[in-house]
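Encode chain A's predicted structure.
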Amino acid sequence: MSNDILSMLQEKEPVFSKGQRAIARYITEAYDKAAFMTASRLGKTVGVSESTVVRFAVELGFDGYPSMQKAMQEMILNRLTSVQRIEVANDRIGNQDVVSLVLQSDMDKLRQTNETVDRGDFQKAVNAILNARRIYVLGVRSAAALAGFLGYYLHLMFEDVHAITTSGTGQVLEQLISAGSSDVVIAFSYPRYSTSTVAGAQYCHERGATVIGLTDTRLSPLGQNSDYVLATKSDMVSLVDSLVAPLSMVNALVVALASRREAELAKTFNSLERIWEQYQVYEKQDD
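Encoded structure for chain A:
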């Protein structure tokens, strides 16, 4: 919930009708739930019609209820505690099929990411990684899975790769102490944004390293400390974070890098195949 909306609610409160005042009061007191309600459901909750809710959004300066709802959602995600996430998720799910609800949400995140990610920043990020002296991959807490996955493949392509997944700010900065202008830092951070990741990105940015941020928006704490931002949607409101779109973007980075290092990778994997065969790393399939 943005301070602007709160200010508007306070400023316009004297001229609100009885129904609008009820909507404003509910949003102010329970914005974590209101932001994820349809206009119809919000109206039923406060005892007004759906059309009253829509007119209320227009009264606040939005072009409709969806715009107001989106603004509220984007601004509150970083404020929700784990308990609030569970409460909101349970409220939204109701009697719906959980599998369909989650899969559809993930598909929506992929579609939104495909429509909005900056292809220019993506290509510049690929070039920066290819030309880097050292590569740091930074992701903590749930984002550690993303950092570990990307780090695994980068280790196969480059010689000097450091995956950092420890959560403490001091530990993160200790591992980034040598980062400089010839290095690249690929960092992951989504709501609720990790303090240690943001601090690490800021430190490296100030030291002249190229920071590639995989986050939900350029305006996020990580986005503001990144040279290139690969904006990917991860705003599933539940106990878990949706990593589908971020992981898909990681896949795109790996594919793009692999296509540029095809000859080197062929040699690496020829050697690896011999090692895997000798030490029976993989189960053999019957002919």
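DSSP finds 14 helices and five strands in the chain.
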